[in-house]
Structure formats: structure tokens, C-alpha cells
Amino acid sequence: MSDASARVLASGTVHWVGAGLSTGSGLARLCDTADRVRLWHRTESRAADALGRMGLAGRAEPRGYTLAALTAELAPGDVVVSMLPAPEHAGILAACIHRQAHFACSSYVSDAVVEQVPAAAAAGLVVLTEAGLDPGIDHLFAHCLVGRAREAVGDETAASYSLTSYCGGVPAVPNDFRYRFSWAPAGVLNALRSPARYVRDGAETVVERPWEVTRRHVVDGEEFEVYPNRDSVPFVEQYGLPHTWKPQTFVRGTLRLEGWLRAWDAVFEELKTGDDARIAALAGELAAKYPTTEADRDRVVLAVSLDVRGGDGRTWSGSYLLDLVGDAEESAMARCVSRPLALGVRHILDGSLPAGLNRAAETAARSEEWLRELALEGVEFALRVDQ
């Protein structure tokens, strides 16, 4: 039951759960298009305060969040947008399935979410994931590059290729720490504690401490430092790269300002020896010491490139670059996460996403459409192609 005709008709009501660092103007876009929006935060008064700060007082209804309270207000066809930490998604999705509501988030798909996808699909419900910045816009860039390269080189042609996708939220004005926290501090540290798998020199490589393979990377003439994160290998298939093409490099990773590796030396020592409790405490300490304050501006840089060399001599190179600085209205991170997510929710509302699991846009053609829509909404990026 995964075709559009079998999907539960969207009711027009959107429940946006969480008002943290990544909630931005995407919420305002939904207030413009949805019939009704409810913002769920820790308490109703804090939800009201958040709406006031975003200029949305009277345009969305504030609610105090508990899972039970949210579940009680869900109606068939509602859309729930979870901005809570990823471990919370499975419980919210279960409530959505129980109440016949659609679900959306910007996080990677977890095993606990995947387990519930068959039930959601059978009930005619959309489960939209990986629809933010990274993951999200990075997927769109990669799909579009792969689609253009396939047209230029040909699926049946033997070829080698290198695909790199690096994203980072960094200070617009560098500080000594080379970083300010513009999203969940614990998430930043725990990502560094997770092994990374990627393709280097034509072979799969696993590194237990990703920062130990940090290297220099030049983007548009500017030097950065980059390292791999998570598991890049499954995205070879997800991005639709032909089986006749062999990867020399395939890595999805994190981008940091030049000098970051040296500035974080003491943090790495803690990551090597600290237990979960110590790392959680460290995240709080660092967030308090290096926050993105009202006086600071953050910067998001997302650079995705693909270089293909065919056995017959044909070559193709392309790259996307998103380089955005926050302003007085919202951070760059909030804009780049919330606007793609809101766009995905609008596609649930208009009935153009099928029931079952969706990861942003999953084809080159659909990704081109998403990027055109995002460009119209102020998410600016540049495409360069060399043939």
C-alpha cells in the first residue's frame, strides 16, 4: 500500500515538536501554507515565547509537549514534525501510526524507525526522514550530480569516480576554538566517538576515531579541515551510481575551519577516555563556553563534488556549494535544516509523497525539483560543471 492513491489524505494540520536550535523559518513557511500549525515545546508558555521570538504569535498554537498529550490531539491525516533528538523519533512514529498521522524529521533513519515502516506503509502513512541539511540537501546535491554524470558518461561505460560530500556549521567569524555550537552539543561529540566507514584509494576503510584522519580540503579557494563520519558506503547504492563505475573515493563527512584539529586537542583526549556521563558533562561545558550567542553569526558550508573518468577517455566533473551566513532573524543552521524539512512536509500536505519511507528526494529528477523550490525560498547554492 505504497502508491499515492492508498495514502491517508492529509488533514492540513501540522504538529511541530520542538523549538530548539534547528527550528527556523521553515516553521513560518508552514504557517503560510498549512491549515493549522501547533508548536509543541517543553511547556505551553515556552512554546508561546518561542512563537513570539519568531514573529509567529497568533499564527500557530502553543502546546506543552508530552508524548501522551501529543497523541491525544492527533487526528487522521495530521503531520507530525519531530525536531527532538533522534532516539525520540520511534516513540513518536508509533503514536502516529496508532492515530493514522504522517511523520517527518530531518534525522538519519534509525533501526527503530525502519522497523515500523511496514506498518506505516500498510496504513497509508508517509514517513519522511533525512530531509534537513545533512542529511537532506546533501542528498539532493549528490543525486543531481550523479544524474548529470550518468547522462554525460553513460551507465554502461566502465569508469572510476570520486565523490566527496562535506558539511559543517562553523563560526562566521573564527574564534580560538574554531567552533561555536549551533546544534545539539552532545550530538557533535558523539558523532566523533562513532567509527566511520568510507572508500579511500578504491578500498573500504574503517577508522575508529574519525578525527585522526582529518585532512586539508580546499573549497572555492578557502582552506578547511575535513574528516569522514558515520557509514558512507550504503550511499553508493542510494545515490544510484552505476555498478560499472568503481569508486576510488566515496566519503561523506564533516567540514571544520582550518586550525580546528589543533584547537580541539584537549577535547580529543577526553573523547578517548571519558565514559558516557563524562562526555555528556563535557558537551554541556563546551556549549556554555562556546555558544552561538545573539551577537554571533554562524556559517553553514556544504560542498559536494563528483569526478568521473570513463575507460573510453570521457570525463565529467561537477560540484555544488552552499555557503550561507546567519542573520539577525535566524541562524544559517536553522534555515538550512528547517526549510527543506518544511518543503518535505508541504509535499506530504499536497499528496505528492508516497506512503512508506521517504528520504528527502530519492531520484535525480525529483532532487532537481526540490532544489528549484529551495532556491526560490532563499536557500542559495551554486552549481559548477566541467566536461
Compile the SSE list and pairings.
Elements lengths: L12 E5 L7 H9 L2 E6 L2 H10 L7 E4 L2 H7 L5 E4 L6 H11 L2 E4 L5 H4 L2 H6 L3 E4 L7 H17 L5 E13 L13 H9 L2 E5 L2 E5 L7 E5 L2 E7 L5 H5 L6 E13 L2 H4 L1 H9 L2 H14 L8 E13 L4 E11 L6 H18 L6 E4 L4 H13 L5 E5 L1
Parallel strand pairs: 1-2, 1-4, 2-3, 4-5, 5-6, 6-15, 7-12
Antiparallel strand pairs: 7-13, 8-9, 10-11, 11-12, 13-14, 14-16
Quick tags:
Sacchrp_dh-like_C; seven-stranded parallel beta sheet; alpha/beta; 28% strand; 16 strands; EC 1.5.1.10; 14 helices; AASS; Saccharopine dehydrogenase family protein
Describe the structure.
With 387 residues, the chain is an alpha/beta fold. 35% of the residues lie in helices and 28% in strands. The protein contains 14 helices and 16 strands. The strands form three sheets. Strands 3-2-1-4-5-6-15 form a seven-stranded parallel β-sheet, with helices on both faces. β13 and β14 form a beta hairpin. α1 packs parallel to α13 and α8 packs across α12 (276-289). The longest helix is centred in the C-terminal third of the chain and has 18 residues, at 332-349. It is globular. The protein starts with 12 loop residues before the first strand and ends with a strand. The mean pLDDT is 94.
